[in-house]
Each structure stands twice: as structure tokens, then as C-alpha cells.
TrEMBL record:
InterPro entries xrefs: AB_hydrolase_fold (IPR029058), Peptidase_S28 (IPR008758)
The protein's name: Prolyl oligopeptidase
One biological process term in Gene Ontology: proteolysis
Pfam families in the record: Peptidase_S28
Keyword Transferase in annotation: no
Molecular function, one GO term: serine-type exopeptidase activity
Family designation: Belongs to the peptidase S28 family.
Length: 139
């Protein structure tokens, strides 16, 4: 079933085999190009964790996206080159669950300390985030 995982990755691997389906494929950026293979993941998980490792492809929609319809005061800033961008809404769901899409930005770049060399679109995204926070907090 492959090489043993470092201890800190075991809980995440178990979670991804019993609860969360993260359909991530190799794009050639970080790993070799490869399509996502749900059946292959199910076989790997069952071999490793037994028959209770049943993947639910609808988990993300049911438990992550659907509850957002009644949520409030959340900003999703999606970087155009963020490998996790597919797991957040790419359009605002309401006036208080908003999406800000930033072309060319990587994962959490908008949360880093500011620098003079920051791209203008990241600076603009930070300003939008701050404006939402001020509005929601009454500042």
C-alpha cells in the first residue's frame, strides 16, 4: 500500500479515505500530469483502512458548500494559481459570503505581510477584504 506516511500525515490520510474526497489531479506544476482516479483512491483506501473507508464524492458539496448558504461574514479569496481554489466558492453566495478572485495569486499570498513589490491586484484584494471586515464589524 506504499511507503508509510510520516506520523503527522496519518490523520489527514485517514480523513481523506473516510470522509473527504479531494479530487486533486496532477497538472504538471508540482507533480507529473495525471487525472484524478476515484476508483483508484477507493482501492488504496480500502486496502489501507479496510471496508469502512468508503469515499463520498458528494461530501464537499453537502458539508462544505451547502451550509454556506446560511452562513454570514466569510470572505473567500481565491488565488488563480492556488491549488486549493477548487474547494471554495468562486462567486459570492450572498452579500455576506463573498468571493474575491485574484489572477496569478498563490495560496494565502494575500495574508502575507505587505511589501512594496506586491502585485496591484493583491493589494486591491486586501483592500476589499478589509472593507468587508470593517463593514461587518461596524468600523
Amino acid at each position: 500500500v506504499g511507503a508509510p506516511l510520516p506520523i503527522q500525515k496519518v490523520p489527514w490520510d485517514w480523513l481523506c479515505c473516510t470522509e473527504i474526497v479531494l479530487p486533486v489531479a496532477g497538472t504538471g506544476i508540482f507533480v507529473a500530469p495525471s487525472p484524478y482516479d476515484l476508483a483508484g483512491q477507493q482501492q488504496r483506501c480500502t486496502a489501507k483502512y479496510g471496508p469502512t473507508a468508503v469515499l463520498d464524492p458528494e461530501w464537499h458539496r453537502r458539508y462544505a458548500l451547502e451550509p454556506l448558504r446560511t452562513a454570514t461574514n466569510i470572505v473567500f479569496t481565491n488565488g488563480g494559481v492556488d491549488p486549493t481554489r477548487g474547494f471554495a466558492p468562486n462567486a459570492s453566495l450572498s452579500e455576506t459570503v463573498v468571493a474575491i478572485n485574484v489572477a496569478g495569486m498563490g495560496h494565502t499570498f494575500d495574508l502575507f505581510a505587505t511589501r512594496d513589490s506586491d502585485p496591484a491586484n493583491v493589494v486591491a484584494a486586501r483592500a476589499q477584504e478589509l472593507a468587508y471586515l470593517r463593514k461587518w464589524l461596524g468600523f
